[in-house]
Amino acid sequence: MPQTVKGVISRSKGAPVEVVDVVVPDPGPGEAVVKIETCGVCHTDLHYREGGINDDYPFLLGHEAAGYVEAVGEGVTEVAPGDFVILNWRAVCGQCRACAKGKPWYCFNTHNAKQKMTLTDGTELTPALGIGAFIERTLVAAGQCTKVPEADAAAVGLLGCGVMAGFGAAVNTGGVTRGDSVAVIGCGGVGNAAIAGARLAGATTIVAVDISDAKLEQARKFGATHTVNSAETDPVEAIRGLTGGNGADVVVEAVGRPETYEQAFYARDLAGTVVLVGVPTPDQQVTLPMIEIFGRGGALKSSWYGDCLPSRDFPMLVELYRQGRFDLDAFVSERIGLGDIEAAFEKMHAGTVLRSVVEL
Ligand code: APR
Ligand code: ZN
Ligand code: ZN
């Protein structure tokens, strides 16, 4: 029997989100219905609301979620009812050129649930990032569910997006290793996860750069050994100064603006790696001297979803959390209800929270 549950939608461009009744079909072949426990509020949800992603309104928002599998459709072997899972954006095909190269985060044939969740009048909803988890139950492709050890859902659910993106940018894409110097530009949820990842990977110098002293203070708790307020001090000079005049082995850019891309580029050591995880808008441009690109060598990389393998990385990070070695609780600024998402967007904008997490 299809269930009718409460969920949060964005009905039209820029309009405040609404809590409405949503009809969730029984899982079909390859699908699963998940009872959502928690879902973090991410910038991407706000981008959907503002029309910055596409125009397929109405959107069912939310995508940083953990919960329990409630029911599975025909042929599902990945998960079973009762499993505690973290959701990821899309199930990968396992067979395309990217999957065959062991880089499934670039998979060409990703899929989500085939059936649609709807409003009670039958209007089809577009789930944010193929998930839609500001809702009591959601329908996903079974391959979007990664079984993990049981832990506080509010904390580990954040691995579904921002925290994984940041951690993976440093560790998977950047390949930070023991003894490295690392600079992280932008210390929101993504940047702090990169800092925490760099610390776990054994970096000895971790320079946090932000324009807010409060964010820099927080960054120290995640493992920053030095902080630079780039509204006051030239961050490139400062990073070079803290790394023997050289620049950092790995620079992670977690803002997504032209000036911070440029800073990241100049702050790397010879043969250093620049990892871009901050998402720019389509109209932004940077101009870089070719001799600088050539002369310093190294690599300029972008990081997609932290270049993560959910089945490898989610359980590993949950285990580190359970052992007290990765403080996911520190990313949870507040726990809120389904009706508080507009207020959470405002706090996100004001920069007063790392993550607001909806509890269902
Ligand atoms: N220089 C340095 N830091 C800056 C600058 C700047 N010019 N502008 C903003 N910041 C800081 C903010 O003070 C904040 O601490 O960058 C941080 C951004 O954090 P959040 O807004 O919390 O964003 P977050 O969720 O961490 O995502 C960062 O990564 O995945 C992408 O889409 C995401 O582009 C976004 C970025
Ligand atoms: Zn997100
Ligand atoms: Zn594939």
Plain-language structure description:
The protein is α/β, with parallel strands linked by helices and 360 residues long. It contains 11 helices and 18 strands. Strands 3, 5, 6, 9, 10, 17 and 18 form a 7-stranded mixed sheet that branches. A 6-stranded parallel sheet has the order 13-12-11-14-15-16, sandwiched between helices. A 5-stranded mixed sheet has the order 7-2-1-4-8, with no helix packed on it. Helix 6 links the parallel strand 12 and strand 13. The longest helix has 13 residues. The radius of gyration is 20 Å and the shape is globular. It starts with a strand and ends with a strand. The mean pLDDT is 96. The structure holds adenosine-5-diphosphoribose and zinc ion (2 copies). Adenosine-5-diphosphoribose binds next to helix 4, helix 5, strand 12 and helix 8. The site of one zinc ion has 6 residues, from loops. Keywords: Metal-binding, Oxidoreductase, Zinc. Its cofactor is Zn(2+). This is S-(Hydroxymethyl)mycothiol dehydrogenase. Belongs to the zinc-containing alcohol dehydrogenase family. It holds the Pfam family ADH_N.
